[in-house]
Amino acid sequence: MVDSGSTDDTCAIAERAGARVLVRPFDGYRSQKQFAVGQASHDWVLCLDADERVSPELRAQIEAARQHGFTGTGGYRFPRLSEYFGKFLRRGNAYPDHVLRLFDRRRGGWRGDREIHEAASVDGKVQTLAGDLIHFPYRSFDQQLRKTQRYAQMMAQYEYARGKRASLGKLIVSPAWRFWRGYVFRLGFLDGWHGLVYAYVRANYVRQKTIMLWLLQQGRSLDSPER
Q1: Pick from 16, 47, 197, 201: CA 20 to 30 A from residue 149's CA?
Q2: CA-CA distance, 141 to 153, in Å (whole number)?
Q3: Helices H / strands E in the chain, number of each
Q4: Is residue 225 predicted with pLDDT exceeding 80?
């Protein structure tokens, strides 16, 4: 386990459970995960965030793949199921949200230079396992809003540094498309009010990111000025 300076009992609990705990200052989501992969003792690694849990069905699938020697593939992806204020979202943009988290670190890892919305990749074939990776992304609505705004700023800065530019058309169309794609075309409305709120917040994330990218194009800073 890699810890970046938690102030609760996370490290002690992990050590009591038999985990090897490494402490490393946080300098990016991708970099932190790739550091953990590099410190692993075995070639095959399963990467989990602190807010993720392996479901019993997924565990059985992983153990079966291990018994067969992980043959014929460089990694495995599986669906991630997110809990959203008391309900698991099974439609819309939230699900199935396939993620590659079990892989041979000799053939891949958390590559690239994007620290936000990072994704693992491998050279070779990737197979899909049944069973869900259970995700508990938000502790409160306030925490979700703060988290999505931080992510929007990081993505805007990343895209701006790589030459991507916003337009007034994108500012109008992109958030609306994100909402309608998830809530209507991907049946997010079947998740009830949870699906509606989730679709609105995700559309607002796109709106914030596009506005921030536009501001950067105008030479404006996204950070609060020093007093």
Answers
A1: 47
A2: 19
A3: 6, 11
A4: no
